[in-house]
Amino acid sequence: MEQITFHHDTVLSDVHMLHPSGHHFMTHLNSVGQPVFMSRFKILTERRDSNDPEDKRERELRETSETDIKAARGRDGEEYGDRKAEPLLDVDGDLDIIHRPRPNTVGDGGRDWTHPVILKQNSTVLEQEEYDMDEEGCHWFKDIIRIEHTMATPLEDVGKQVWRGALLLADFILSDPDMFRGATVLELGAGTGLTSIIMTTVAKTVYCTDVGEDLLSMCKRNIALNKHILEPAGGEMKVRQLDWLQDDFCTDPTMEFSWTNEEVADLNNTSFIIAADVCYDDDLTDGLFRTLCRLCSNFPRICTIFISMEKRMNFTLRHMDVSCEAYDHFIHCMCQLQEMVDGRCRFRVEQLPSNFGQFLLYERVEQLMLQ
User: Fold this and answer.
1) Are 222 and 37 in contact (CB under 8 A)?
2) What residues form DSSP beta bridges with 186?
3) Residue 368 to residue 232: CA distance in whole angstroms
4) Which residues make beta-bridge pairs with 145?
5) What's the pLDDT tens digit per position in 273-304?
6) Closest Cα partner for 244 from 357, 333, 116?
7) How many CA atoms within 13 Å lie on the side-chain side of 167?
8) Cα(267)–Cα(263) distance, rounded to whole angstroms?
9) Long-range contacts, stretch 137-144, CB < 8 angstroms, 24+ apart
10) What is the band of 337 on the pLDDT scale with cuts at 50, 70, 90?
11) pTM score
């Protein structure tokens, strides 16, 4: 089940692709039959500077070891002085491949024992085991965040993965927690809810919003998985549906993730709006900025917006060159937002430096941006 099958429309986050497969544990199938994995993210007790000399030394050592390995592979024929080892050939002159002996074989037919695991959709038994871990004597360290997510999804389900933009925004929150302490925060396009979980450790109330019952249920479960971090902080995290392509909030009481009238009124206390890696489709980007304008126009106070994203370069036939169309469209919308004057609100746009400390382990590439 560790093997991932890619199709023409498959998208896989670099966060999952660059981590060893042992860091991911498949737990169950979601309501649409997609395998759900669990990853652990450790919050560094001492912040890691993005320009830390220790990091540079680690990279140099890693690069040196990789170079040594490649050089050793290139010297296969030089192990015994200048004499090259002759390839092993069978009687017909074909290359003879030597296979490693199979471990853990049994006497009955020489076959390995297998232990199949039947995955179920939304296993209530698994959920109960996770929720009752403290009662069984197990506990998770306060600096470990557990996130359930999917892998290798179609483009419309990329919110179910963890992206570097979310980790960058989480780092920014952890680098200056006093800025957000006691605030009411709204996250747009929260995905798995990782950034909202980090924000809830310092903020008073966090509205974690997205669309899709399956994705919102994943957010809700991730809250339960990280109660060891959230409960001591005292903040409240609420998972709610917010569709950028709709003008109104969903207040239908029969819907699980609908808004109450009190919560809609409480949004007027919003001091910060955050969003991470949500601009990958032009229509959704347009919907994001329409939502920002609609919300901020009704807020009675100044609201600060932080948007993180990663510039993804692609070769396009239209330009016959490498370009970043999603980011270019995002910048175009930002310029329009700054130039907009409607008498109710005004926006000021600036790009923030990303040289703040790193509290989560991931590759902070230069293409990561914070606005």
Assistant:
1) no
2) 207, 273
3) 31
4) 41
5) 999 999 988 999 999 999 999 999 989 989 99
6) 333
7) 25
8) 6
9) 139/228, 140/228, 142/228, 142/229, 142/232, 143/42, 143/43, 143/44, 143/45, 144/40, 144/41, 144/42, 144/43
10) confident
11) 0.76
